[in-house]
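Ticket #4471: structure output looks truncated?

Reporter: J.K.
Steps to reproduce: submitted the chain below (151 residues) through the standard prediction queue, then opened the result file.
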Amino acid sequence: MQKSNIKGSTDKRKVNPEWFTNKTWMKVLSEKIKSKDQDIYHVHFENGSKTKLHFHNGNQVLIGIKGKGRLEIFKRYGSNKKEFKIKSIEKINLNEGDIVHIPAKTLHTHGSIDKKKEFSHIAINILPKKNSTYKTTWYESDFKNKVSKII
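Returned output as attached by the reporter:
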């Protein structure tokens, strides 16, 4: 058994800035408690930052911790893996305490909805099968109509 606390910890992990639209940082919680079946992160989005368009090979659960955020789900059109059309099909506002399940291979983005405020959530990335690697595929897009490349 391992115990840890997300508050007050100073071990922020830098994130790949190509995967976000503005300043974002996170803490890796799964390492602190030695979790083996899922990767757990506390992700902090500043001033309207959000993720770029992406999907995961395993399920994901988001739990709103602070501020107001949004999860947006997209549908893809076309067979090209690098360039294709997209359409937003659902927008889910996330408030403190809200929890949402994102099925594997769901194309989506999430983050802060207010350009002057922060939003944070816990992300639980559930491994697709025991002893496997959780993978995320990231895309450059206009968040409206098209995806231009894999990042």
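Triage note (M.O.): checked the attachment and the full token line is present. The mean pLDDT is 91.
Status: closed, working as intended.
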